[in-house]
């Protein structure tokens, strides 16, 4: 064996105990410029912590059960001040047994952290890594034993990806599997071979076992770093694993012929040694892309302008029909889904986002959600170096709730000039300015005489803390990302910074303490209220505010140039005021920064429907972008998925007219009348479809039965074989018989759409103009 140093990026992580060797073995697979690398780190011990004064009790309990443990002094404390001791185990199963035995009697800390994660976390390894050790060349990969690892934060891998998609019936019996990418373009199809002129390969399989065996060969020969798909973990791989178990087949899809492993629980955890499996839906959501629904059909249409090859209302029935009658078209459909996923990943730069997210947080590439886990990865090693173990959920013993963001009462109406001032990353800036931090709280409570006062009896150390420095680092890194045109890095940092408050305010986080979260939100309330007061002393009216944004009315006669100058002047004034105020009151440097974000002209703030009170989180404004007017809708029907395209189009037309400089009242009458006539003439029939997700299983709807469920039950009454699952998007319309599933030829009840869609939107505008309700005359509902 030789010694060498390699640079790589972690694709998968495992831990296991070996009977032949003492201790736990950690296995990391890397992608590198030299090809795949398998890294083994042996003789490891997993650890959790207990109060030191429980040492003898724990020892006696574990001795009775013949559980081997090594107690070590660690010079670490719990937040309560209790001195802790480390409990080290050579075997993972012994750690789990010990935890189960001891947690009934004593407090145990950090027992839920896997050692394969802890090992990387404590070395600040986040994806990129230098590795050295005993090197040997294996078939298709490099093996490094007795390895030593060091962080390589700058290393960015080049990933080989393969898109996978399966087709099956409702019971999960496999029909075909599509594989596209990394030079492969094939569909594995069960059935007799058929001649075809498709521009891709079809590999015909005898049965499911033959299909699964060939699939293993294709994946191993193609040797991708990443496998992608749509709901690929929860559906595709789960179905493949289930069928393999039922048929007695082992799926050795991993590198070095390692098997696929899937564990289900609160979420499905998939391990595929040497590869990462990344789901398109989870990655979209992690990157904060927002869509009305996340089906592949919808995303491919919205992002790529392309549709799936099967667009039937009951897609599963059509897939079954094609498998029985038209396998060539099913193969084309299967392959097209693989292509759509690959193109979405490329178009939205999802691989780039996954990589930078790992580089920032240390989370696995495929990890869904994970804000709490990311916070733990970043914070825990810093906390250990300060001499503390992480607390358990609820250790603070407090039960009060911290308030949410501050939302002002709005002043409804139609305005000529509204300036929006926005605090840049308000909550992270508050945390940085006022040193709000879990360790800082403990240290502040220990020495309150020179601490920074928070809320609900919280005080924070001026010197001993970690989050302010972390936020400073993220802020500077994000600015560099913007300056060097790295949008995915900038977006990933923004998401992490915005999640810091959310994590500290989440009861699912071990660091949650209502004194922390309330010291952030209540400071935000104070900042918003004080900023409003300062603006109003200058003679301006504040008509609304929400969490970190303030809406200021400027005089109607002012030009856009003058409004922009006022916005800039206000930001300078407010930032200087906060800088002086925080220095004067607390002796601190202010990192609060308000920006002039938008000039709306005109701007509309509605009332709450049916009331005179101003609405919240709902408004419409017009901006000038690239020399052209553009409408911005927030919280209105136009941006809500539970309103029809008809209503959204009507609302846009209404406000486009209302905001025109040459607007006259009669134009509203004309638009309302025109849309009514066109509605009854059938022009909008394809835009009258409601789309709602089925939130529960069909049988769970008993007392409250919403329209989409009513529509499904009516259809199933005459079509008992119709199947639908929780989470699916339901398309329905209103007919003379109430809600019905959309079929393209429904007998529509236009009066319901007038009542439910057109009238509420029209009335909102009429109320703002202080117009009386327009009377409807005749069946056609013409307007006076």
General description of the model:
Residues 379-748 form the DNA-directed DNA polymerase family B multifunctional domain. This protein folds into four domains: 2-151, Beta Barrel (OB fold (Dihydrolipoamide Acetyltransferase, E2P)), CATH 2.40.50.590; 161-348, Nucleotidyltransferase, domain 5 (2-Layer Sandwich); 393-601, Palm domain of DNA polymerase, CATH 3.90.1600.10; 638-783, B family DNA polymerase, thumb domain (Topoisomerase I, Chain A, domain 4), CATH 1.10.132. The protein is 38% helix and 24% strand. The protein is built from 21 helices and 31 strands. The strands form nine sheets. A six-stranded mixed beta sheet has the order 12-11-10-9-13-16, sandwiched between helices. A five-stranded mixed barrel has the order 1-2-3-8-7. A four-stranded antiparallel beta sheet has the order 17-24-25-26, covered by helices on one side. A hairpin with a 2-residue loop joins strand 7 (128-138) and strand 8. Helix 10 crosses helix 15 (487-504).
């Amino acid at each position: 064996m030789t010694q060498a140093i390699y640079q790589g990026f972690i694709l998968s992580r495992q831990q296991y105990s070996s009977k032949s060797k003492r201790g736990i073995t950690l296995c990391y697979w890397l992608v590198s410029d030299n090809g795949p690398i398998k890294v083994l780190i042996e003789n490891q011990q997993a650890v959790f912590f207990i109060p030191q004064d429980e040492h003898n009790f724990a020892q006696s309990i574990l001795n009775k059960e013949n559980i081997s443990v090594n107690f070590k002094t660690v010079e670490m404390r719990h937040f309560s001040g209790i001195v802790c001791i480390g409990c080290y185990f050579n075997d993972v199963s012994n750690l789990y047994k010990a935890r189960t035995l001891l947690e009934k009697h004593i407090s145990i800390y950090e027992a839920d952290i896997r050692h394969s994660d802890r090992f990387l976390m404590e070395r600040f390894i986040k994806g990129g890594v230098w590795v050295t050790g005993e090197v040997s060349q294996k078939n298709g990969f490099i093996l490094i034993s007795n390895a030593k690892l060091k962080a390589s934060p700058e290393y960015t891998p080049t990933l080989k990806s393969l898109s996978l998609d399966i087709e099956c019936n409702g019971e999960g019996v496999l029909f075909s599997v599509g594989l596209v990418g990394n030079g492969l373009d094939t569909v594995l199809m069960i059935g007799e071979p058929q001649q075809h002129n498709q521009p891709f390969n079809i590999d015909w399989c005898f049965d499911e076992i033959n299909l699964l065996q060939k699939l293993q060969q294709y994946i191993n020969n193609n040797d991708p770093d990443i496998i992608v798909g749509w709901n690929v973990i929860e559906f595709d791989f789960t179905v493949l694993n289930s069928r393999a178990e039922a048929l007695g087949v082992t799926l050795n899809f991993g590198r070095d012929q390692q098997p696929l492993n899937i564990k289900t629980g609160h979420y499905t955890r998939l391990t595929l040694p040497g590869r990462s499996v990344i789901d398109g839906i989870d990655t979209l959501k992690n990157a904060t892309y927002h869509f009305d629904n996340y089906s592949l059909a919808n995303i491919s249409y919205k992002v790529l302008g392309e549709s799936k090859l099967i667009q039937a209302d009951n897609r599963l029935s059509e897939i079954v029909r094609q498998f029985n009658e038209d396998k060539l078209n099913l193969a084309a459909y299967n392959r097209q889904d693989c292509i759509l996923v690959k193109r979405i990943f490329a178009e939205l730069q999802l691989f780039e986002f996954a990589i930078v997210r790992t580089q920032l947080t240390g989370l696995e590439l495929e990890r869904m959600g994970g804000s709490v886990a990311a916070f733990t990865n970043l914070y825990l090693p810093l906390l250990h170096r300060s001499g503390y173990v992480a607390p358990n959920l609820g250790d603070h013993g407090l039960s009060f709730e911290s308030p949410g963001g501050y939302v002002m009462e709005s002043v409804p109406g139609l305005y000529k000039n509204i300036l929006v001032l926005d605090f840049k990353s308000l909550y992270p800036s508050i945390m940085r300015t006022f040193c709000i931090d879990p360790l800082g709280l403990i240290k502040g409570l220990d020495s309150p005489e020179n601490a920074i006062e928070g809320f609900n009896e919280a005080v924070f150390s001026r010197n001993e803390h970690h989050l302010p420095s972390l936020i400073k680092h993220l802020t500077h890194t994000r600015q560099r990302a913007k300056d060097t045109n790295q949008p995915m890095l900038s977006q990933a940092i923004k998401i992490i910074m915005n999640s810091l408050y959310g994590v500290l305010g989440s009861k699912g986080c071990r660091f949650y303490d209502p004194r922390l979260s309330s010291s952030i939100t209540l400071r935000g309330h104070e900042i918003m209220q004080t900023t409003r007061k300062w603006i109003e002393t200058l003679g301006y009216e504040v008509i609304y505010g929400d969490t970190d944004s303030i809406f200021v009315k400027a005089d109607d006669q002012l030009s856009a140039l003058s409004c922009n100058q006022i916005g800039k002047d206000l930001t300078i004034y407010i930032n200087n005021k906060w800088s002086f105020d925080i220095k004067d009151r607390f002796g601190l440097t202010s990192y609060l920064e308000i920006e002039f974000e938008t000039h709306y002209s005109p701007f509309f703030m509605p009332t709450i429907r049916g009331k005179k009170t101003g609405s919240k989180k709902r408004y419409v404004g017009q901006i000038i972008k690239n020399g052209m007017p553009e409408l911005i809708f927030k919280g209105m029907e136009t941006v809500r998925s539970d309103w029809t395209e008809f209503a959204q189009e009507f609302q846009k037309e209404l406000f486009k007219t209302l905001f025109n400089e040459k607007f006259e009242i009669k134009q509203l009458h004309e638009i309302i009348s025109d849309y009514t006539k066109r509605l009854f003439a059938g022009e909008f029939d394809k835009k009258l479809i409601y789309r709602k997700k089925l939130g529960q299983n069909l049988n769970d709807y008993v007392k409250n039965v919403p329209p989409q469920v009513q529509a499904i039950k009516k259809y199933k009454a005459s079509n008992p074989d119709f199947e639908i699952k929780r989470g699916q998007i339901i398309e329905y319309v209103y007919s003379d018989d109430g809600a019905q599933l959309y079929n393209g030829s429904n007998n529509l009840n236009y009066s319901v759409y007038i009542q439910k869609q057109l009238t509420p939107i029209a009335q909102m505008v009429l109320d703002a103009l202080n117009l009386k309700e327009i009377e409807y005359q005749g069946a056609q509902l013409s307007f006076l």
